[in-house]
Amino acid sequence: MNSDLDLLQPPMAEAATQFLVDKLADAIRACNEVIVELDNFQNFADLLDSIKQVFIDLEDGGDIFQLEAPMRELEQELDEALGLIVLCTVRSRIYLLFHCRVISKQLEDVTHRMGHILASIPSSSLRGDDQQKSVVDDLALEMKSALFPYKDNEAKLCQTLEPENRNILSDVGVQQAILMDIARTVGIEDLSRNPTAFRIELDLLRRDVEDSKNTNDMRLFGVVSDLFNKWLQLNEQPSQSEEALAVHPCHKRLEPLYEAFVCPLTKQVMQDPVTLENGQTYERAAIERWFQECKENGRPILCPMTGQEVSTTVKPSLALWHTIEEWTQRNEQARMEIVKQIITSGKADADIAFALSDLQILCRKNRLNKHRARTEGLIPLIVDLLKNSEEVRCLALSSLRLLAENDDDIKEEIGATDLKRVVKCLSREHTKEREGAVYLLYELSKSYSLCNKIGETNGAILILVGILSSNSEDVAVVDHAEKALANLERCDNNVKQMAENGRLQPLLKRLVEGPEEVRIEMAEDLSIVPLTSEDKSRAAQRAAFALVEMLGSHNSVARATALKALRSLSTLPSNGNLLIEAGVLSPLMRDLFIVGPNQVPTKQKEISAGVLANVVGSGANWETVSVDKEGNFLASEKIVHNFLHLVSNTGPGIGAKVLQVLVGLASSNKSVTRLVQHIRSAGATVSLIQFLEAPQADLRVTAVKLLMLLSSHMDQELADGLRVTTRQLGTLIKLLDSDQPMEEQAVAAGLLANLPMRDYHLTRAMLDEGAPALLLKRLDDLKRGVVRPSDRRHITPFKTGMVGILVRFTCALDDQRILNLASTYNFTELFTSLLQSGGSDELQNSAAKALENLSEKTPQLSSVPDPPKPRGIYRLACFKQPTPLIGLCPVHSGVCTSKETFCLLHAKALLPLVSCLDHRNPSIVEAAIGALSTLLMDTVDMERGSQELQNAGGIQPILVIMQEHRTEVLRQRAVWMVERILRNGDLARQISGDPHVHTALVDAFRYGNNQAKQLAEKALKHLNKIPNFSGVFQKV
């Protein structure tokens, strides 16, 4: 018994599987019949087709018995899905519009549940087929996360009609706009020309609402009905046929409308006349609706015209139907001829507008009239009307679109005309006209053969892209522009144009997903299309990995085009990390260093070097990224040596780019030390210096930048290299006054300023090259504002560098030429002025150091003049009286000037220096306190110097500096000055009362370095805080 059952089970199981497959097929076919949400139901059909394929495969290799439960569950969900599909097939369009959100949610819910059912299929039912299990799991995941979004314009319409928005509906303009949107959404593009179609839709909606018996549905029906009735009143739309509306003097020769042709109920020409048993004739749909209302209201079935009780049986009135058809054909042909006559006869725009409106009525009624319009030669005539008034242009555009709908031949004929006129309408400000042009171009773009023609029409793609980014409130226009562009994307030439106008996505999609030849073309386009920073960012996010993948292709053309595209994207610094993540460094290094028969062309190598320079200079995190199979990094010795070899053994194009890479390495605090080591080990210092004389500006400028960055780490080596021959030094100095951009001049100044200050041979060499006079001239130029606008951002580093160079000359004042130079140009007042100018921290630091150097020289230059000889009786020795000397410097006890002796007092430098003592930058404070300390040297009147500091308000800040202990150098200098200030008895008495001074000196005495301790001991003795005989430290 059991064996017999086992023999029967497989066929039964297979039948169950086949039943599910057939049911899936039915649902897929039904999805094609829905009248709304076509895209969503097509996507749902695709998912169902995937399920069907899974179960077809499982018939052969699966355990059908274990699949029984999932199949039953899937059948139940399919029943619900079919119910939803049927609903979207039979319900009216307006009803489905009101329920778009519910439909979308129900479709998502059933799809998600089916996904969970698929996920529950056990692996054992697949009999170990891992590949089949993977297919099922992927499909289940896709269905569980599936989304079926409804259109934004539909959702906005539904939201507007909600009860809480009744205040919005009180505005007549809003009412008309909403009604127009509803009409367009359900497929009635021009409500004013076809109110009958909307009335039919309303009748269908009423039927659906009565079936649903839903309160909200009934409310919505009432709202839309009221909107339509008000619109009819405002637009004076009587309930009559379109033929009755078409009244024009030329129509007098048309056959009259016979009363027998008109339905008594609809008052319109009958399309499907039927006769009752009493001989009365009506439109079939109208009389059937009358019968239905009688039944629903419990009334007897009566003839509307006679009141006789009749049966619901009707007979087609074929003879009348044929008569109406023949009358219609004759009149439509005559009306078509009248349309042509009006258009070609130069009639007024009002007549032409009537003709175009009548043409639209004819074409909507009968597709054959489109063919007639074409054979009558109306299409080029209508295109020619786009030069007429605004009203005529709008009607011409809508007429052309209506003619082109679902007719490829007419599309081609419109495309053969001058599309520039359509595009011109696209650019006009009038909303209705622009809308008509967008709709027409969308319709034409459905023809693949016209896509190129539209793209070649100047401005078409530019304006369509502009509409998308215009934040227009007309959702329908934006939607049609988007659809038109989507159709135009099918042509590669259009894709390039879109990219040029800011629509990159089509190009990037082809670049990432297309076949190799398409990817090459798209990469080439991406490399030449002008891109904004935002475009470059989006392109890198979408295509970086694809482009890097192309760098590894065996196709040399693919590699070259990808490299050019990466060159464009790498110019945006923020793309650096993304390109590194995509793996760009290794293929770039391969292209640069490979030799032999496989080496890349020179131009390609130069591009590789440029991309690498951009990435390294972007601030990206490249320091820890391996660049080859050996695990080397960009700053590894082998790689740096290879870079240096390339610089010396390739052309200037590659050399400049590789130097830019080295600039990037030198700009990194993490890598500059290793870079300096590797340059030293390669003995490349002199070679790099020689590039200062390169005739190519980019090579020379980059070399200067690199040497400037290295000068902080190998200043003496660079100074030695520059002394080998003065040509490079002269080149650097001449750069300061060249016609080159100020950026180059600023870098050259920074390099020279970083060279060792105490290298007197280098200082004399600069003097021989005329550097001081040139520097002073350029500083004066900056002061007078002789600067190009593009150079303004480089003024500060340029000025800072030049001041740094001038400081070195104050370190060599023992040289008579330099001493004369400092006196001639009044260096003391110059640096005092620079200190007061409030420039960069480096500039203020340099100015203060220069003042210290100059002031140290003052005691040697300040001299006491001989007293004047006595006269008269005072010549006798016994009567001789000393003549007091007037105008001597109180600190230097001689004749001083700022120009001749560099006296800080006469240069009025004390106040600017004192103001620097509370600067946030410790180095500036150190420089300022160093300059002020020259007033307390052994070679000056220390007591008077202390008093001058007191008068300038400098003593209190010095005490604060000693107490704060910001740096050890500052504390030592402050303690040195305090010790000397305390030698002034009056000042010592004033200071001794401050307990903080005592605490600071004790702290220096206990914790300072050896020199600070000795100075603190002396200062405490002045304050009588420790005995004079203590002798804790030896005298210094």
From TrEMBL:
Domain U-box: 256-334
Biological processes per GO annotation: protein ubiquitination
Record-linked Pfam families: U-box (PF04564)
Pathway assignment: Protein modification; protein ubiquitination
Protein origin, superkingdom: Eukaryota
One function term, GO molecular function aspect: ubiquitin protein ligase activity
The ARM repeat ranges on this chain: 459-503
Enzyme Commission number, as recorded: 2.3.2.27
Protein name: RING-type E3 ubiquitin transferase
Species annotation: Physcomitrium patens (Spreading-leaved earth moss)
Gene name of this polypeptide: LOC112286707
